[in-house]
Specification:
This protein is of the alpha+beta class and about 375 residues long. The protein has 11 helices and 10 strands. It has 3 domains: about 110 residues, Acyl-CoA dehydrogenase/oxidase, N-terminal domain (Butyryl-Coa Dehydrogenase, subunit A, domain 1, Orthogonal Bundle); about 110 residues, Butyryl-CoA Dehydrogenase, subunit A, domain 2; about 150 residues, Butyryl-CoA Dehydrogenase, subunit A, domain 3, CATH 1.20.140.
């Protein structure tokens, strides 16, 4: 379909597509097998200016928006959903600064992120606070001109490789979510350590680990916004970042689908290609239709956000639900089309299937997203919207 992208957007898309084919696809299986963070590929991403896409020009970015981030994340994820997370995870970690940071914070941190010389990570999830983000136990205590952080963040994308960590911690536990605040913690800060590196089913080229704060001392100036605004910052961040997860899921689905179509055309059984069998044709038709439906919803939502729409939580959640579920169905069907070969690591689609699963889980499980969507639907109905 023609989504009427601008010439600049088409150029970004094509650049990312060529980069994914030339620099990511040839090494994706190796990084997946070794579960290594792909620093050489990430450094090349930086040289291609991919990290500048969503950052305003006044902070050395290219001034793009969610649409540009979505387009590039989708293309990179067609080759590897794990490697693409170095970019998408950095955007997630940067959003709290973009959304609620003051000008001094933006001038200090965003140019480094734009250059790709430093990655970012977003620290919200804890061992006892997953879907229930309001149950965070990490605390931040003000002592003079510094905050002292204590607690453990869990399953953190870019954990251990990021230069900057945006952290949600409680400055007043008695107030629940209204007592949460947001902070910037720099690599090398006193009291910042890292726990075990997670051994994951999929996205194995992405770094995921515990981030531990033990009397971690950070300047008072690293508070994002005001005390008590942390939960609001976190929710706004997730609303803005979920289209990025949807783009990752869409790319994974499209990548698996492309492999399945090529295989169906070249694999012969009973004297003809399996693409000539109606059973396979129907599977491919359903896969193609669902992928295009995701793309239409995702691109429209990205444009809605970039246009300055204030309330896009429902659409953002819809993107993630639909894209994650479609990615899981499409990759499962791709394995089925490959048959026994699809189950083997010699062929690429089993990796796509493993990578797809996380898109239904992180940044709010798809069950939680359905709660979000339902709340909006009921609220809009009550108000006559």
């Amino acid at each position: 379909m023609n989504y009427f992208l601008t010439e600049e957007q088409l150029a970004y898309q094509q650049l990312a597509r060529e980069f994914a084919r030339g620099a990511i696809a040839p090494v994706a299986a190796e990084y997946d097998q070794k579960a290594e963070f792909p620093w050489p590929v990430v450094e090349e991403m930086a040289r291609m200016d991919f990290f500048r896409l969503w950052i305003p020009p006044e902070y050395e970015g290219l001034g793009g928006g969610i649409m540009e981030l979505v387009l590039v994340t989708e293309e990179l994820s067609k080759a590897c959903g794990g490697i693409s997370l170095a970019l998408a995870g950095t955007a997630l970690g940067a959003f709290p600064i973009l959304i609620s940071g003051n000008d001094e914070q933006k001038k200090k941190y965003l140019p480094v992120l734009a250059s790709g010389k430093g990655l970012a990570a977003f620290c919200l999830t804890e061992p006892e606070a997953g879907s229930d983000a309001g149950a965070i136990q990490t605390t931040a205590r003000l002592e003079g001109d510094h905050y002292i952080l204590n607690g453990t963040k869990h399953f953190i994308t870019n954990g251990g490789v990021a230069k900057y960590y945006t952290v949600i911690a409680s400055t007043d536990p008695s107030r629940g979510t209204r007592g949460a605040s947001a902070f910037i913690v720099e690599e090398g800060s006193e009291g910042l350590t890292f726990g075990k590196k997670e051994d994951k089913m999929g996205i194995r080229a992405s770094a995921t680990c515990e981030v531990v704060f033990q009397d971690c001392k950070i300047p008072r100036a690293n508070l994002i916004g005001r005390e008590g605004q942390g939960f609001m910052v976190a929710m706004k961040t997730l609303d803005k970042s979920r289209p990025g997860v949807a783009a990752q899921a869409l790319g994974i689905a499209q990548g698996a689908f492309d492999h399945a179509v090529r295989y169906a055309r070249t694999r012969h059984q009973f004297g003809q290609s399996i693409a000539s069998f109606q059973a396979i044709q129907f599977m491919l038709a359903d896969m193609a239709t669902e992928i295009e439906a995701v793309r239409a919803l995702l691109y429209n939502t990205a444009r809605m956000i970039d246009a300055g729409e204030k309330d896009f939580g429902r659409e953002s959640a819809m993107c993630k639900v639909l894209a994650g579920d479609v990615a899981m169905r499409v990759t499962t069907d791709a394995v089925q089309i490959f048959g026994g070969y699809g189950y083997m690591r010699d062929y690429p689609v089993e990796k796509y299937m493993r990578d797809a699963k996380i898109t239904q889980i992180y940044e709010g499980t798809n069950q939680i997203q359905r709660n979000v969507i339902a709340r909006h639907v009921i609220k809009d109905s009550a108000s006559g919207a």
